[in-house]
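Sample entry (506 residues):
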Amino acid sequence: MFLIGLDIGTTGCKASLFSADGHLKASAGREYNVNMPHPDWAEQDADCVWQLAQDVLSQVLTTAGESKVAAIGLSVQGEAVTPVDEAGHPLRPMILGMDTRTVEQNKWLVKQFGKRELFEHTGMPVHTINTLPKLLWLKQNEPEIWQQAYRFLLYEDFIIHKMTGKAVISRCLASRTQLYDIQNRSWSPKLLAALELEPERLAEIVDSGTGVALMKSDLATDIGFAGRPLVVTGGHDQACGALGVGLTQPGLAMVSTGTAEVVELALDSPILDDTLFQGNISVYEHTLPGLYLAMTLNHSGGLLLRWYRDTFCIEEKQQAEAEDSDAYNLMLANAPDDPTGLLVLPHFAGSGTPAFDTTATGVILGLKFDTNKAKLAKALLEGLTYELKLNLDLLTDSGVVIKELRAIGGGAKSPLWLQLKADITGVKVMAPAVTEASGWGAALLAGYGVGAFADLAQAARTLTNFKQQFNPFHQKFERYQALYGIYKDLYSAAAPFNHRLNQVLN
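Predicted structure, serialized as tokens:
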């Protein structure tokens, strides 16, 4: 039996075809754009993403030489939303999670409900990332589209509707929207009432791993499937990654380094205490029914390295293309083995947790004439990892013991970065055999939905293999601890200057 995990990310989509025993047979990917028509906006052509999703599905079948697929599960970026007509066609571009236009809408929500009350009701801290303020912005700023819209869909329910004609969303992704009552596990009547939004204009909520329907026959034929695969609900890409790396019991933690860097911690109940509230840490439903996840967020992540590569390392990029090698490895080839002594505040897209400061900017402290490209490249990794430790400290302050980190995403392919994570955090880091765990998590859910696995948690545990373990080196950990003590004060020291700069520029 073969299963597909279809991963719809912020900057690209990937289809991964697995056998039911977890063997990756083939994968195919495409990149797409994030459009920024205004300084605070981030939008995407949802129909373009859908077309490229079809392309990668077709390509993965061709690459694998296999057209008989039992089921498809979806792993998708969170919080993005678009209004659609009755046929499911978008009426405007998708507003992405990274869009920050909704500052005024959040002020209104805080005035109406209170920050703490919103967190306790939905598990989501107040932030521009959420779907709720995006919908409020649409209602206030594009009233004609608001009235025309038959439904408002996120990427999971949008693509499921394209595949099956049914608007269905996983409980996992629904709980990322700030429209979800985390205690009663349903769309929130009081929040929908505040929006004057009927629940019928949102997708139906079901558990992750639920078979929705067989793919439309003409679509299956066009893509190249021998039959009609079952389309199965998946969830938020980070939650699918958590399943794909075996987070099946409370206390297990994952670090995902892709466009952003995220930590996911498995919980047996939605912990909504003051530590997580003050740290702006979101709590939502896992893709594994019965468990929850606490999530930290650093907006920059791999996007920061990509910016550095494309802006300052053109030669390394061209060399990598000529040699069919990795530009990031070339960038870091001559980096010092010891700590660089540079402190990089990686808030190039604002800060994530704990501050959630959209006016924050990047800072590089400690520049000297001996600073070269390789040293600065490693300093970027160090800065991202200091930010990781800052968030891990918040989670442990809530009483959770984190004994290991399971690494996934593009960053999990770099031994240098994985060792750096261990040396700075003081926690061992495990690298799975399949680093693109979001696709595998979606495929696991597809298998569960089609009946290939009787026990989803057991399948995730037994079919997840780790190829390498990185233990912290004590001497380096001690040196990084001293630097981290300075790093912790860097944001608060820079914040007044960032706010003044923002006032002048805006």
